[in-house]
Each structure stands twice: as C-alpha cells, then as structure tokens.
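Late entry, written up from scratch paper. The run itself happened at the end of the previous shift, but nothing got recorded in the book at the time, so transcribing now.
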Amino acid sequence: MEAPKSYYICLSSASCLETFPDNKGSAFTNQLPFELKNTYNNRFYIQLKKIGICTKGKSAWWTQSFSYVKVHIYEIEKQTEGMNSTHFAGGFSFPPEEQCSHDYAMHTFRQAPQLLIRFQQLHKLTVKLTDENNQDILVPFGSPTILWLELTDMEPKDEFIITCLSKQPDMYPGNLLHSFISPLPTEMTMKNYEVALMQLVYPPELQEKVMASLKIGDLMFEYNLSEMATTEDFIEAVQKDISESKYNNLIKFKRLRHGPSKGHLTFVMRWVRGVKTPITVEPSPNFTKVCGQTLTPRAKTILRPGKLFIFDGQPDIRLGQENPVAMLQCDIIDPNIMCGKQAQLLHCVPVLTNKPLEGQRLYESTQLAFHRVANYPINRIGLKFTNPDGTHRNFKASNPDDCVIISLLFRRRK
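Output as recorded:
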C-alpha cells in the first residue's frame, strides 16, 4: 500500500479578512490553497498539530473562569447530531504546557485524533474556540490566532481513529458519564484489527476525593487529602481539630524536635491531675501513610498518661495522595484477566487527586496498549469505568453539558 498523501495547512485569524471580515481570534474562516473534491470517497482526514494564541492585555483569556479550551472545526464529520460536542476536533488544558513569550502562548497537540471530512467539495475551513461548556471565549486583540493542521488522504482500512461520546441524547438517552454506548457512522467488521486508548477528555467530577480519618476516643475527624497542598497543611488541620475538641488538654499531635526520630510525628498523652483513664487513638491506613508509617500499623493505639506513640518514618502528604485508577472497559475487545476474572479491560486510567480545579481534564496515553478487536460486525461501542475490583464506579455530572470524550486508535494487526 502506498503511503498516504499529507498536506500541512496553516490557518490564521488575520488571513482572508477581505473575504471574511468578521474573523476574530476565537472564530475565523480561511480559504484553502486548493479545493478538495469528493472528499467522502477519497477519505480525507484532518488532524490538529499546533495552535498559537495571543494572551496580551488586561482581558487576557486566562483570567476567565475556565481551564480547558475546545477547538471546533465545522467541516469535519458531525460526531452526534444536535449536541454541543458537534465538530469537536480537540482540546487542551489551559494554561498550555509551552509558552513562547509572555504575550503569546503555544500548544502542540501530540496525540490529536484524525477526523473524517464529510463534505463533497471543500474549499474553506471554519475554526471556533470555546471553553469546556462550549461558550465563546475572549481572545484579546494583538497577534493573530494561528492553527496548524495536517490534511491526509488515506485509505482508513489500515489505521484510523474513532471518537466516542458519552452524551447521545437521541439514540442512547440512558447514557451516563461512567457507562455509555457510542454509535459508529456505519457497521464495520474489524477482522485482524486491534484498538488502543489514545485520549480521554472528562469533567472534574471524575476526580476522586482521597480521605484520611482519625478517631480519638468517641470523636471522629476526617481529612480530604485532595485539597491539601503540603504536609504542613495536613499537620495543622489535625492539630486544629484536636485543639478544638474535648481532648485539647490531653492529646497532642506534633513533630519531634530532637533525637534519632527528629521530624517524625507523634501522639502524646499529657499528665493531667485526676485523669488516669487511657485514650484510644485509631488512625486510618491513609492517615498512617501520610504520617510516614512504614511498618504495618496497629488498628488501635492506646495512650496512657505520659506515654507517646511515634510514627516510624518522615511524614509526606504525597504518600496519601497516590493516584487511584479507574479501569476503562470496552465491549468490542476480547476479554483479558483482571483481578482473577475475565474482563474487557482497555486501559487503566489514573484518576487525578490533586487539588480540584474547574473545567475538563485531558488524559493522553503515553504508551499505547493495543487489544484484539472481536471478529464480528460492530455498529456501536460500549464503554464503562469500574474500580480495580470490578465494581461500578459512579460519577455524577455537575451540569447538563458534561460529556466524556474518548478517542480510540484502530489498526490492522501486524
């Protein structure tokens, strides 16, 4: 098979102003240097490569309340008729990873999907930038917005990308963020094909709270480690809770300042006249991780007046913030073994546990893991997220526009 023909195209908001005088930094149209005819039969695909955006001025777009930018190209195939993700070509978290200067930001799309062009004749491309909720963004006046694209004429039988969306109000109104069905444009038989996860776009509600708890006597204290930036934040939160409780004069939680265990955390029960009853302290496993405990901790620690319990390692908030994973399963692949059971596991997706931010998240596979596609006619793809033990992982949408977008790479097995 001959190598596909590729064309690199540069679009700019400052181009074609005589023909398209309404062009602006967040929405613009450019004429192509050539006309594409019969694009459906010729199998033309388009792929984002790089974008440059002006960020100069007091009204610069990063001051607005969003952290994810969508790029829409209106000449690509509609992914779902009548929904907000129509014409979605790619997105990136803001601020972008690369900064060329203080007034101009650059972003490279390393694994953007190749999207099918469905128009019979094509002589122009229209681009629009929005926030994660598909609302227009304000790009300040200055240097133009520039978008680099690759246009490829190829036969899609050897390698192609399919984008799946959780929101299908017409065909699958019962879809959920964590379990959904996405239709294919046409029925396909993928004998001798394999598939891998390329990209996942998901709302912040897929983040998981990482909790730690501490029980002292009959009081229970809980701590959301996801919202704590440093170890000192954790220590201060525990000290504050104890100081405001009835155990204020009895129990202290602090770092040791001297000796071989300097810097280690400890619980101390002070001598108080008339108090002889021991107090039970029960830290959760995640609590002991943050405190640096390396040996298997006891479920309960009984403190007596004048006694103390020392954790055997240095505290570190990151020890309790280890990213859990969600298991992404896909119903068109052959089953494999997960936790001793057969499951159609496509990929293990890290669930971010850093301090929650607003806006959608972008996860890209650094190493593609391919799985054999089942050998039977397929007209839709079912995807669901589970916990590592196979139980359902339920996520809730915060607004009606929330949508999970999954890009899958299909290729012929070698």
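The CA atoms of residues 45 and 116 lie 5 Å apart.
(Scratch paper discarded after transcription.)
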